[in-house]
Design a protein that fits this description.
The chain is an alpha+beta fold and 72 residues long. It has 2 helices and 3 strands; from the N terminus they run H-E-E-H-E.
């Protein structure tokens, strides 16, 4: 599952990198994906919305086994 997530994150990264941000996979456990937002995303007041509405939505669409995405 980790490989699938990394592959999906590659597509998501392109969108984040256009705005100066990035995302890094930290861990996957029981369908919960933990990521670290980097670059402009790390200090952005909209980062929680980006995490939920973009990163989590795209991962869940690509990989139905993903239950939740959390920032660490």
């Amino acid at each position: 599952m980790k490989e699938k997530i990394e592959k999906a994150l590659e597509k998501i990264r392109k969108g984040l990198q256009q705005d100066g941000g990035d995302v890094e996979l930290v861990s996957v456990e029981n369908g919960i994906v933990k990521v670290r937002l980097k670059g402009a995303c790390a200090g952005c007041p909209m980062s929680q919305m980006t995490l939920t509405n973009f990163v989590e939505a795209e991962l869940r669409k690509a990989i139905p086994e993903v239950k939740k995405v959390e920032a660490v």
